[in-house]
Amino acid sequence: MAIIITDECINCGACEPECPNTAIYEGAADWKYSEGTSLKGNISLLNGSKIEADKAQEPISDEFYFIAPDKCTECIGFHEEPQCAAVCPVDCCVPDDEYVETERELLEKQKFLHN
Amino acid sequence: MQSFRSEIENPVVEKDILELERKIQLFKEGKIDEERFRSLRLARGVYGQRQFGVQMVRIKLPYGKVTSEQLHRIADVSDEYSRGRLHITTRQDIQIHHVSLDRTPELWAQLEKDDITLREACGNAVRNITASETAGIDINEPFDVSPYAHATFQFFLRNTICQEMGRKFKISFSGTDEDTAISFMHDLGFIAKSKLVNGQTVKGFKVMLAGGLGSQPRHADVIYEFLEEQLLIPTIEGVLRVFDRYGERNKRAKARLKFLVKEIGVPEFLELVAQEKQALSYVTYPIDTTPFEQEITFQKNEIPEISIEDTKSFEAWKNTNVIKQKQDGLFAIGIKVSLGDFYTDKARLLADLVKRYAANQIRLTLRQNILIRHVREDLLPLFYVELSKLGFTDLGFNSTADITACPGTDTCNLGISSSTGIAVELERILKEEYPEYINNKEIAIKISGCMNACGQHNMAHIGFQGMSIKVGNLQAPALQVLIGGGILGDGKGRFSDKLVKIPSRRGPEALRVLLNDVEENQLESENFLGYYDRKGKTYFYDLLKSLSDISNLEATDFIDWGHDENYVKAIGVGECAGVVIDLIATLLFESEEKLTHAKEALKENQLSDSIYHSYTALVNTAKALLTSEGIKTNTQAGIIQNFDAHFVANNTIELPTTFAELIYQIKEEKPSKTFAESYLADATNFYKKVDVFRKNIVSHD
What we know:
The complex is a heterodimer of chains A (115) and B (701). Chain A is built from two helices and six strands; from the N terminus they run E-E-E-E-E-H-E-H. Chain A has 115 residues and is α+β, with helices and mostly antiparallel strands. In chain A, strand 3 (42-44) and strand 4 (50-52) form a beta hairpin. The longest helix of chain A is centred in the C-terminal third of the chain and has 11 residues, at 103-113. Chain A starts with a strand and ends with a helix. The mean pLDDT of chain A is 92. With 701 residues, chain B is an alpha+beta fold. In chain B, 38% of the residues lie in helices and 17% in strands. Chain B is built from 21 helices and 22 strands. In chain B, strand 11 and strand 12 (330-335) form a beta hairpin. Chain B is globular and about 85 Å long. The two termini of chain B are 46 Å apart. Residues 577-582 of chain B have low confidence and may be disordered.
């Protein structure tokens, strides 16, 4: 599963620098697939959709820090546990029921992001 | 409230206080915007607190210097307007709580009688200037940094260039390479250095830029190994001008200087500072140090006969709490103030003692303590006896057992879980179970109630940060345990690693596990940080991991330290920066105000000030139009660029040059009278043009 930041977020920013995939952004900020990954140019995502890695994507939340699910591997391949959840002072980085993935899928995603 | 009006001697101060009073009135009548009012009161030291309807007031005490008379005054004010408690902060201020907003102007006027200010103690301003508490008495210092800290305070207080910055700005001065003022975590940190040039000793500073703690700490960069003293003020001015122009304003979490420098790079930042050279109010600014070099004088009082019965305790106290000064025969006495809290009855007795038998001055320290300076050796027994009566002789000044903690959930809106409660408990455990740490000046323990790190937990050897843990539908108070930070000296420092999150109730156990492990495994040749590095982060994570298990919580785990009832998470929004209001009409109205200020300053022949007011009027006017079109206005530099792109390039607003060329004359011209006049005329014309344009649009809407 990807991790999601709930609306209990207090916008402290503690999670942002911890993410090994640069999947976490401040509310209302544009984000890119290429940031903090080895993705560049035209890419096909694992679900088949084609996308420009350097293109600015719409923010997922305007109010709180958010996680781009396509870039979240729950820290698989890097750490024992999701680092955002470990440092979140109010426990609001939780598994996202809408993006349930197996450990193998997450590992594959990790390889895709950092080939 | 008439009482204070006639009593203030300094007209500038009087104007300030009357303005605060007037704005409070307007706010109550609903005539000024709440956010605007908030940013005004913050810049006057008046802060919100967790309890509804009352204010915290921060008293700005440059480098923590307080005379006996000032301490009496602060005590009187606390009794009259607050509740008799004085809280020493980690930046050498004193905070008092539960003050009624209506009474803040009167309170301020009282303080000013002894030359104490509230101005720019909070808000987006140059905050209190801190300095090593031993400045002026330290055996190892090349020179006393106090006069430089003082000059910096005076020069930038009410200075036009730093009244509406994007975020706060912190400056520190360290007297020696020990760097006790922690330069590596300040926006600008200075360390005293001296150098021989042609046989002459020259005074100067190593300069550190853009450090900071908070949830994303950043180590400052060295920008000068040696900056000569007369360039101190011009250098700070240049940095502040660049920060004002290029600093982020909309995204509050990214608005500190550290983010700007991280984004553009140090050389690029310094290049921008260099471009400000023409605009500076002084090319060099010599600082008069003589007021700080007067002979130390004492009152001539009869010295009472003192006999000390418990000589062992006296010696132990001398050993941990007394410091030999560089002045022959004089000593400084450290008072360990638990949590930085002391009370007015004792404050008065301390003030009297210092006046009668020392040289009438104390310094509040960065670890929330008090340092009495200039005590003659033969008077140490007297001080020991008198301070004992006040409960001011606890052993372990600046030791491991001297824990730093912010106020946390006691009074602060931002606190997540209790910092003071756990600090008291840990101090008790150290005293009872690990008394050897009372003599340990190597390891520091620091605690903050949230990630903003006012308790400096993420630069301490051992740190704790307030958090909360979800357990089903319940919330338990929690602590993040951090290890491995510290001051390395000469501008270098370490931030600690975030190890593990545990229920708050297990904080004491975490400390025990850690200290026991250190005792068992640390080599003689290693210091604490050396041991931590040898074992590595994972070792300590594994050591503490079992404490993070939340499957076995008990009822008491839901009650925070210092409380009787179940923990409730209640986190408000920070006040440090008033939210920016973008109402176009308000912005244009402010531009008018700024033009008026520019005119007034010109009349007084304050040329730099006048020019800067004209500059901010230009920026503000441009911002108004950009806002009306929904265009981003994150920084002043961005506003200037966007205005050209959206209004000048397509001749929507016709100007003789680009807007950038018009406004950046400020960088090209020295602050002369001719320029100040022409620049004001430019700003006025620009405002008129925009105003007409805007009125046309509004009338067609």
